[in-house]
């Protein structure tokens, strides 16, 4: 059993003359007031002024010696609570408002972010196609085709009994030096027909028909043909008398109807059945002109009549300019 501490070893109690409290002699200063000077109203600046004890009141704060101190006041507690509430509210606002906005903006600027879009009715895949429906074939442009357009040598001409020979339409591709493939067709092969080279021939009946030239890629051009060739036509008449046959040759022009254009601006007229020199004239020189050798030249759009006088006869031809 531990021996009791000797009474002489116990510290002596000292009475503080400033605050009136008793404290152990082990302290160099009063732990309750730290031996603070007199109150302000009792101190006049003189070191020898009489000090008045504070009647045992303990200071609000004590930084030395383990003294007692008062807790915070109610107003200070309320201020602390309000400050904490404001801080918490600010944190909630940042989390619920600002962060989603920043995240959304980054998502919009990030090319790797893909927004899911619900398909609308118009975006829904169509049902399986009906096998009975006709599907237009897709035209394939040949690999060796370099042309983007073309033109025809004639856009309109005539075939007649006087000049029934076939006419070949020539094709000029553009740009210059390019190549392409042309497909030919006639709106009425019974009036005029056309072969794969563009040669137009009279058919079995008269009338007008359109020749269409088509290049892969959807480029088309047309030519209007007037056909007046009839079966059994003749350039003269034959008579038989007394067992002898006499053939009378009539005068004729190589064309009775033809068309000129800026692409095909001239045509050479000729007279058959005579060796005489014909005299040429034209009705409207604002449409076309004719030279002394029978060359008809395009002037402007319209229609006029070409006249040839030879051996006392008059021959005419219709000239169209487009």
Topology overview:
Blueprint: E1 13-15, E2 22-24, H1 74-109, E3 149-152, E4 156-159, E5 167-168, E6 171-174, E7 183-186, E8 192-194, E9 199-202, E10 207-215, E11 219-227, E12 236-241, E13 244-249, E14 252-253, E15 257-260, E16 266-268, E17 271-272, E18 279-282, E19 288-290, E20 295-298, E21 302-310, E22 313-321
Parallel strand pairs: 4-11, 15-22
Antiparallel strand pairs: 1-2, 3-6, 5-9, 7-10, 8-9, 10-11, 12-13, 14-17, 16-20, 18-21, 19-20, 21-22
Question: Could you give a quick summary of the protein structure above?
Answer:
Helices cover 11% and strands 31% of the residues.
Largest sheet: 4 strands, mixed
Distance between the termini: 144 Å
Can you give the mean pLDDT? 77
Percent of residues in β-strands: 25-35%
Task: Give the strand line-up of the largest sheet.
Answer: 4-11-10-7
Sequence of secondary-structure elements: EEHEEEEEEEEEEEEEEEEEEEE
Which structural class matches the secondary elements? mainly beta
As a percent range, the share of helical residues equals 10-25%
Spans of at least 5 consecutive residues with low confidence: 47-68, 232-241, 243-248
Number of helices: 1
| Count of individual beta strands | 22
Q: Shape, please?
A: rod-shaped
Q: Using only CA atoms, what is the Rg?
A: 62 Å
């Amino acid at each position: 059993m531990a021996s009791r501490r000797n009474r002489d070893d116990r510290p002596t109690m000292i009475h503080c003359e400033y605050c009136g409290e008793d404290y152990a002699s082990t302290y160099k200063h009063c732990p309750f007031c730290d031996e603070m000077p007199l109150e302000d109203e009792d101190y006049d600046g003189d070191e020898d002024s009489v000090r008045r004890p504070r009647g045992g009141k303990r200071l609000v704060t004590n930084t030395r010696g383990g003294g007692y101190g008062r807790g915070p006041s109610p107003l200070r507690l309320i201020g602390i609570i309000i400050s904490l509430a404001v801080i918490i509210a600010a944190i909630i606002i940042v989390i619920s408002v600002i962060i989603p906005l920043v995240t959304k903006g980054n998502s919009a600027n990030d090319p790797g972010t893909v927004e899911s879009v619900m398909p609308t009715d118009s975006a829904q895949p169509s049902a399986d196609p009906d096998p009975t429906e006709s599907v237009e074939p897709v035209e394939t442009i040949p690999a060796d085709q370099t042309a983007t357009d073309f033109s025809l040598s004639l856009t309109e001409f005539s075939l007649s009994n006087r000049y029934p020979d076939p006419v070949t339409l020539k094709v000029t591709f553009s740009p210059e030096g390019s190549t392409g493939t042309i497909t030919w067709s006639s709106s009425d092969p019974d009036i005029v027909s056309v072969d794969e080279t563009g040669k137009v021939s009279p058919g079995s009946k008269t009338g007008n028909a359109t020749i269409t030239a088509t290049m892969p890629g959807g480029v088309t051009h047309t030519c209007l043909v007037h056909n007046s060739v009839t079966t059994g036509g003749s350039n003269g008449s034959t008579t038989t008398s007394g067992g002898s046959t006499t053939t009378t040759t009539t005068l004729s022009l190589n064309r009775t109807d033809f068309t000129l254009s800026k692409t095909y601006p001239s045509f050479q007229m000729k007279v058959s059945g005579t060796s005489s020199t014909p005299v040429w004239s034209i009705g409207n020189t604002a449409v076309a002109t004719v030279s002394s050798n029978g060359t008809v030249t395009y002037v402007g759009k319209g229609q006029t009549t070409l006249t040839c006088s030879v051996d006392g006869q008059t021959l005419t031809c219709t000239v169209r300019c487009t």
